[in-house]
Structures
1.
Amino acid sequence: MTTRQIDSGMVAYQILNEEGTLVSNMPDLGPAPQEMLLKLYRAMQLGRTFSHKIIALQRQGRATTFGSLVGQEATAVGLAAPLRQEDWLATSYREIASHIWKGIPLPTLIYGFRGFTAAYPPECHTLPIQIVIGTQMLHAVGLAMAAKLSGDPVVAVGVCGDGATSEGDFNEALNFAGVYQAPAVFVVQNNGWAISVPRKKQSAAPSLALRGPGFGIPSVLVDGNDVLAVFEVMKQAVEKARAGDGPTLIETLTYRIGAHTTADDPRRYRDEAEVEAWKAKDPIARLRRFLLAEGMLTEEQDRELVAAVEEEINQAANEALALPPNAPDAFFDWTAATLTPRLQAQRRDAQQYAQE
Ligand SMILES: Cc1ncc(C[n+]2csc(CCOP(=O)(O)OP(=O)(O)O)c2C)c(N)n1
Ligand SMILES: [Mg+2]
């Protein structure tokens, strides 16, 4: 196994290097490896195109604030691909490509970025995106403990950013999971920044993966721009959790190429040279180089694939834009199974306000 040395003093696991060359064994991709490689590639393209589309809609006043996933597609796809449908996924806002892989329909996701809510299919076992930083890690542990107590062979995955590791919720989630050996996998997408706060301000630990052993949780550092490495590490962690052998913490080293959200201007706080250096490690270009070199994809097929992905996203956007908006008080339907008297009063206020 060849790996690359990183500043943290730990070594990030890598299978496909920046040039798109295999530096470690290909993971077990199931009965049809070539199809799976192309599926992973397409899913990353879908994530990127989705991101571009919502940002364009936001600029036109047709979508809400949105956080770009450009540069982080390998982590989002690689973490979702080894999951079974019944495994739970609890993510932040940066992992739309994971939700797409889990089967959430594109129009449902796009409708969400119009500021409205459409139910996720319950069988997808995916929680809606979480904006409140770090809380989804607790939800993942709760889902994992429920599975454990019920004897279901189900794993729950919590995904957060580097900034979220400084939240109490993150640390409480890991502590509880370690003590009770929850069948959970925690993924920290270390994309270098928490809005304008750099990774080094989050922890003096040389790597975020090193936070795990303090909770008695085995941890892995992986190249987050290498979809195959993320897939392999995730697969092992999920299998381990499913076998009853407890949680794992995975730090994926990646980078947010775009702005934090459509409400941010990263030129105010970060060096353009840093962005350029990371562009050279692009996760999609890396797998594309490998597929082209192996003869699994031609330039022509690649162009067709990208055009088909764009068409799919555009059609889904048209569908989502044609849907009627939620009623102004609809969000009460999603907050509690039974509204308390105070919430009922608030709902009446909201209805009255909307009519004025
Ligand atoms: C509890 C809480 N505090 C603050 C915020 C405001 N906020 C939104 S995103 C963000 C930074 C998160 O950084 P990170 O965890 O690294 O995730 P990334 O955006 O880089 O994917 C903050 C502080 C919030 N949403 N929730
Ligand atoms: Mg971050």
Note: Residues 94, 131-133, 160-164, 189, 191, 193-195, 256, 260 surround thiamine diphosphate (ligand 1) (CB under 6 Å).
2.
Amino acid sequence: MKVVIVGNSAAGIAAAENLRSLEPLAEITVLSQENHPSYSRCLIAEIVAGAVFDSIRYRPDSFFEERNINLIRGVRVHSVNHASSTVSFGEEKEASYDKLLVATGSRPVRLGVAGEELDGVFVLRSYDQAELISRCAAAANDAVVIGGGLVGLKAAYALRRRGLPVTVLVKSSHLLTRQLDALSAAMVEKELREAGISFIYGQNPVGFKCGADPKALGFVVLEDGREIPAGLALVAKGVSPNAELVREAGGEISSGIKVNAFMETSLPNVYAAGDCIEVTDCVTGRQTPSALWTLAVEQGRYAAINMAGRQKAYPDPLTRLNAAQFGRLPFVSVGAMEEGEEFLTWQKEGRVYQKLAIREDRLVGFIMVGLIEQAGVFTSLIKSKRPLGNLRGDFLQGKVSAANLI
Ligand SMILES: Cc1cc2nc3c(=O)[nH]c(=O)nc-3n(C[C@H](O)[C@H](O)[C@H](O)COP(=O)(O)OP(=O)(O)OC[C@H]3O[C@@H](n4cnc5c(N)ncnc54)[C@H](O)[C@@H]3O)c2cc1C
């Protein structure tokens, strides 16, 4: 069997690794646009903060050779021809497949405003971009980050660690609206302000303007007309799935590539996994792009199992599952926090906050700030959909542990 995998990251690597253990004789080729050894994308903000590539490596260089996997780096796949079961890549090259996995991930959304092409305006998705930001940070006097989501805040914190004055522009009423409520977001904001980061709420940029050098960023222009001096700006306003290869080949797309429970797209023998696909959230039942490293790994594994012909259905995942730490403040946010649910909250000394969302006696979501030890237990409760019963009272006193859930 000949298998081609497009993308050398969480989903692609998990698929290649699992496929090799299932199919010792398969011919596996991984085509990767990036020309670097594999690295952990979740850690690229560390490069912005000054870390070196080796500290974010994901697999050793020997990984592919030891498994007899043919990795071709630095080539873009241009198209999929499912009638001839081939992909075209690089400079007029072609590879044929019996099974193809599209694991192309996603890319940052651009604002589409004037001046976005100026030197000094960045997005953060790849090691190369992180490197460029790091180099610009060494020379810049000030930075503006656009977006109060997790990627924006990780980048802002990294730039601040480089010693730059950093301002974050947040359009919504509080930070991390996908992860936190207003109270927990205020705790995170306080920690970031203490680290020296400033915030401007209710504003998006309407443009970027040059300073003395006509090619380089000098100011970020806000909706209210203010011009914020900046030698570096980073746009972090979410991502969009890289679904083109499947769409242009005639495959079904909605907010991402559509796959069935066996990770098959609507094209014959073409599978997809990771940030490029759409999934159904197991708590809300809603279709949503898959946008987590852990999910990409899991989906890569399921794609491998199914490409190897051992039918195994991928269960609907928990798509909202985030953990981060700024300064001394860790937080975890999992599942749904929606209107109509019952909320239980518990706070301690302004440093600890826990909130549970309960629907029909089942835990459907939680936020933990400051004290996160029980996050794993709570997450498994959401996944198992187990009725809470007497456990409900114990929760908020911190008495729930793995032991009393057995
Ligand atoms: C700064 C940052 C912080 C993050 N933090 C977290 C976190 O804390 N927790 C979490 O769960 N997730 C986090 N994420 C998200 C996580 O990185 C992604 O969910 C994960 O990388 C998805 O993996 P993937 O394999 O689907 O795609 P990707 O990692 O995006 O990899 C896709 C690869 O395919 C390549 N490719 C695309 N098109 C082509 C083509 N046509 N030809 C050849 N190659 C192609 C791309 O260049 C890329 O190398 C973070 C992301 C960023 C940017």
Note: The pocket of flavin-adenine dinucleotide is lined by residues 6-12, 31-34, 41-42, 44-45, 76-77, 103-106, 124-125, 151, 154, 242, 245, 274-275, 291-294, 296 (CB under 6 Å).
